[in-house]
Every structure is written in C-alpha cells, then in structure tokens.
From TrEMBL:
Domain called Response regulatory: residue spans: 3-115
Modified residues (4-aspartylphosphate): 55
Full protein name: LytTR family transcriptional regulator
Membrane spanning stretches: none
Gene3D superfamilies, per database record: 3.40.50.2300, LytTr DNA-binding domain (2.40.50.1020)
Annotated HTH LytTR-type domain residues: 143-247
Parts forming coiled coils: none
Entries under InterPro entries matching the protein: CheY-like_superfamily (IPR011006), LytR-like (IPR046947), LytTR_DNA-bd_dom (IPR007492), Sig_transdc_resp-reg_receiver (IPR001789)
Pfam families: LytTR (PF04397), Response_reg (PF00072)
UniProtKB keywords: Phosphoprotein
Amino acid sequence: MIKTVIIEDEKPASRKLERMLSNFPEIEVVAKIESVEEGVVWFSENEHPQLIFSDIVLGDGLSFDIFEKVPTKGFIIYTTAFDQYTLKAFKLNSIDYLLKPILEEDLSGAVEKFKSFIPSNNTAGSEDIKQLIRKEKSTLSRVLVKIGYNLKIVQTQEISCFFSENKIVYLQTEERVYPSDFTLDELEDILEDKKFFRVNRQFIINSDFIKNIHTSPYYKVDMQFQPQEEITVSRDRVKDFKEWLVG
C-alpha cells in the first residue's frame, strides 16, 4: 500500500480528493491535515508517508513552511488554484502540480508518474529519483498579483513583458503594470520558451505583443504595451533573439 497524506484546509476539497483517491486501491490515506501548524506537529511525530497531496495556500501560511521545518523524503503532488508557486514547488520533492478543480485524468496521470519514480525496493527519496524530478519542467500559465487588499489572476498570455525596476519585477498588460513575487531568473525557467524571451538583464518580452523591431544602430523592440523605458536587445543576445523570432 502507498501511505498517503492530504494537506488541505478546505474540508469539501479534502473530502473530494479523498473520494477520488479511493479509486486507487493501492493508495491508503493515513491522515488529513488542515494547517501549517498541524502539519509541522504531525510530520514531527509520525512516520512520513511515501506520497503527499498538498494544497499550497493554507489558512496560516504556505504548506512549503511545513517541509522547510520538517524535511520529508516523501514525494509531494501539489494541488492549488494558482500556479505562481510552480518553481518553488519543484524544488521541494514535488513530482507533479495539479491545478484546481482537479480532473480525474490529471490525478490518474500524477499517481502513475509517482509510481514510475518508485524503485523496485519500493522506497522513495534516492538521489537518482531526485535528479529525474529536477528535469521536470512546468510552464507558468497565470500569475497571482496583489492589488491593495485584493488578489487578481493574470494570464501569462495577457502579459506583454516582465521588467525589473528597483529590485522588483513587474508585469505589463494592456490594463496596467503589476508587481510580482518573481525574479527574472525564475521567470526564465518557467515561462514558455516559444513565447517569452529575455532580451537583456532587465526585460523579458512576449512575442505576441511585438509591434516593431529596429536594427540600427542597435536592436530595439517596440511592444504594444511597455513602460516608458526603451527595450534593447543585448549584443550577446542578438543571435539567439533572431533565432527565437523564427523558431
């Protein structure tokens, strides 16, 4: 049996996931946890399961906090309505990332992926498996931004560019500019390569919003929506930039 724990602060969502997992006879749910505090206590006092399904945003913090305080060798499948935490999720023993509402086929695929990572001795946590996990790449499809006391979901397809200013990374849409929690280096890893390109140390642009490209005396890109500062292509990136445009 695959010992499994569910971390979810919404009881209806927890019950639904447990029902969905009941379709897998090899999975046994041994605990359901509702908060970071409860999670730290449980993982400190109990044998860790092989598999963990965890929401990310809990009532008293992020579930990442649990595993930063009590490291686990179990594999984690994150479940959440927001995917802005993708990069951090894949740094913490995560093998998959399911966006809510969870679909049966997505859940089945995640369980099968977990089973493929388990060695013949049925133990998890080896360095070889971790290397396989690090090769997994997830593409950012939407970003959660904060506006005052409100949260807003911005689809990446609506973002003209990301840019850094005063150590904060912003995203530009037709509507306005929003601050984000990312660095440009992180965004390079999780944005769709065919759509987004980092033209210099300050800007990542979306090909769908390119309005014009100047080539003399240097490469400069005009976007449909951008901050006042001009967007130039670094000399060492020009070759890659041209290949990206036609690729």
